[in-house]
# Entry
Amino acid sequence: MLVGGARQNNLKGLDLELPLYQLIVVTGVSGSGKSSLAFDTIYAEGQRRYVETFSPYARQFLDRMDKPRVERIEGIPPAIAIDQTNPVRTSRSTVGTMTELADHLKLLFARVAELYCRGCGRKVTRDTAQSVCEQLLARGETGDTPAIITFPVTVPQNFGEKEVLELLERQGYTRIHAKRGSTLEIVQDRVRLSADNRSRITEDLEAAFRIGGGRASVHPSGDDGSPLRFSTDLHCADCDIHYREPVPSMFSFNSPLGACEACRGFGRTMGIDYGLVIPDEGKTLAEGAIRPWQTQSYRECQDDMLKYARKRDIPVDVPWRELTDEQRNWVIEGEGPWTKKIWFGA
# Structure
């Protein structure tokens, strides 16, 4: 629906029906009444109806706008108006922060958002013995085939492998499926993945999760050799990445907990733009390809660079674009550790 060039005092008799799925586009020249229609009519009616949903006691504490001068408006939902002259101007200010919707959204994300592993892209969920059993029985290729259920045990630094094996043996675990470094893959049971063994599979998985610290693996025979890994924590068993519990502060623009590691939530990063450091790649080092060093203050850096470049057989009379990557890296990064740098670089 297109509404344009209408003043508020000319809206009497105008029949506005605004379903949720329609977009109002107000066009017109300056002074034609666009703001009056948007703020004093549509927003005022939406805000008035929203306030009327509160009790009379609560309404006395809320600011209410005057009822628009129209005969009838239907389909107006609760409305939010954002003034274009808002004085808050920071890199973290958004529509959500200015309207305080961000407070509700971060709570929503913390409760209903789904987690996907940053390593493999798979959905990360908390596994249970029952859910894992259902997954195994639903796999068509492993129907009624033998499988080995295992759990990992890491040998502590203050214990020996023999001591750990003796402790496991006292609990009835005598078979080792595999060994990777200090981690032992202990066999919980050998069982066929069939519906008849549902109870046995569930019990095996419960025991494996309990002793394996919330981790368990299933090795179906006939597969490509890669086991099916499961975890009762927010942990990607395939990538071995742990994730923290989602809390509202992870989605807060003022909390570093969930901020981007690169920009820390500001949307920009500090770095060097080599297009500004070396704007003309046709110049040689001797002609001043490194632009910041062509001032009187940094002339010493230019002289030192030319001096050591000749010692390292770095051509100073060849255009920058024709230098090799190794030669460019020498100019930019220098050489040797910081305490013994022969050339400090750019």
The radius of gyration is 34 Å. The chain has three domains: 2-74, 127-232, 274-340. Confidence is low (pLDDT under 50) at residues 1-23.
